[in-house]
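Q: Could you fold this chain for me?
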Amino acid sequence: MSLPRHRPWPRFLLLIHAVLGLVAFTQLPAGGAGWKEPGSGIEWSPWSSWSSCSRTCGGGAATRVRRCSIRYPIAEPCARDQRQYRLCAAEDCPPGTVDFRQLQCSAYDGHPIPQTRGATFEWVPFYGAPSPCELSCLAKGLNFYYNFGRVLDGTECAAGSDGVCINGRCLTVGCGQILGSEEKEDACRVCGGRNNTCQRYRSVFTTPHLTPGPFGYNEVTTIPAGATYIKVTENSSNYLVLQNRNYSYIINGNWVINWPGTYAVAGTKVHYRRSADHGESLEAMGPTKEDLHLMVLFMEQNSGIDYEYWLPNDRYRRYHGDRSALREAQHADGARSFTHASKVQTSVVPVTHTPARVRRPPAHSRSDTAPHRHGWSQRNRLPPPPRPDNCGKCRRVRGKSNRMKQYCEKDLVIHVKIISKRIIGMETRYDVQVMTTYKKHFAVLRREFLWVPNACDCPRLQEAREYVVMARRHVNYERTLNRILLETDSFVRAYRSQEDKLMRGLDKECEKRGYQLKTTAPG
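A: Sure. Below is the predicted structure, expressed as C-alpha cells.
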C-alpha cells in the first residue's frame, strides 16, 4: 500500500501566510522589539515585564517571558529560551533574619515523613547532598537527612556561593544580573562590551622625602565619580584610608583601624582586606556615584601605593586630559599631611556605621615579628571581664616595689591626658593624648586608645585628668588585634610633677634584676 504523496503548498498561499505573519508580528505587545531568526521562519515576541521578586532581601529571582511563533510548517522547533531570570533584592537581610534554606526546612518541622512511621523531627539545612538545588534537610540531633524536593527559586546553591537555584538548576549570576547568562561584562561594566567606552588609569603614589616620626594622615588621590574596577594595594605597616565626597571617614579614620570587610559607599561596595604580613587592599566594582578620597595613615616610610581604576572616555579626558591610558606614570607628589588640624580635618564628620572597631598601635618595626607560639597563652590572653552588675571593689596597685616591677615587665610606660571614655561591649576604651613616653617597646602616636578589659572603671580614670600608666601590648595570634591594654592590676598613678624624676634610673635597676629592656628616651 502506497502512502499518499505530499502535495506542495501553492506559492500564493505561502505569500499570504508571510503577509499575515508580518501583520501579526507588528501587533505583538509592547515591552521591547520582537525579532526574527533569519531564514528559520521563527519569530519572537518582545520580552514581558519582570515579575515581582521571589524575596524581599538576601537575593531572589524575577522572571520574564516571550513567545515563540513558528510561521512555516517546515521550520525548526524554537531552540532559544522562552523564559529568563534575573537576580533581584540582592541587599543583605537585616540581622536576625532566618536563613532562606533554613526557613524552607523548618516548614516541615512536626510533619511526619513516610519512612519514619509517623515520627516527627526538627529539620536544619544539610549541605552535603549531591544536588545543591534539592531541599535536603538534616534531622536535628540525628545522623540522617531527607530530600523534600526542589528548593524555592532564588535559594543560594550553597552558603556563600554566587549561584542561585532556578527550577532545580544552579545558575550563576551573569552579565546584567541575568541568571545563567553567558555574556560577559567588560571593565566599563557594559554587557558584551569590548572595553572601548572607558579607559584605564594606573599610578603609583610615592613619598621619598618624609621625615621619621608619627606621620599621620596624608592625601593620596581623588577617585572620580563614575570609576569602575577600582583597585588599591600597598604592603607596609601603613594603613589605607577612605573618605567619601564630604571628607567623612569610611575606613580607618579618626585614629581607629577598622576590621577588614565590605563597606557600602558611593553606590558601590568596597572590599577592604588586610593580611598578617601587612598586605592591604581596597577593591570596588563600581561605578561610583560620587568622588572618593584615598588617603594613607603613615606609620613608616612609604614603599609605594599602587592604585588603578577605569573611567568613561569623556570623564577620563576631563580628569586626565589626552594622557595615554597605557602610560603608567609615577605619582610622586609631596604628601600633604593632615596630622595636625587643617581645613580638611576640621570639616570631617565621623562616620558611625563602622561594623567593628579595633585599635591597632600599628607603628611597629617591619622586623617586629609575631610572637612565637611558646608562652603565647600567658602573654596574649585577655583576662575574663567581670560582670558590669557585679564589679566589686577595684584593686589599687601602689608602692615603690610595684612601680619598679611593672616598669620592668610592662611594654609601655607613659604620661597621658584622658580625652574621652567609651564603653564598647564588655570593655572600656579611653582616647588619650600621650604627653611623655618613659619606656616603649613599640612606636607610640601622640593620640592613642587605651583598652581596659572590663566596664567597671577598674582602674578608675577621669576625663581631663593626667596619669602615669604602665600597660602592655596585646596582639592576638592572627594579628587582627593589636592594641594597648591597661589591665585591672596595672600601675596607674595621678600625674605629679615629681613623676619625671621618679622614673629616672629605673632602666638600670631593671637591668640589675635581669630584665632585657628596649628603652627609648622620654618623648
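A (continued): The chain has a mean pLDDT of 75.
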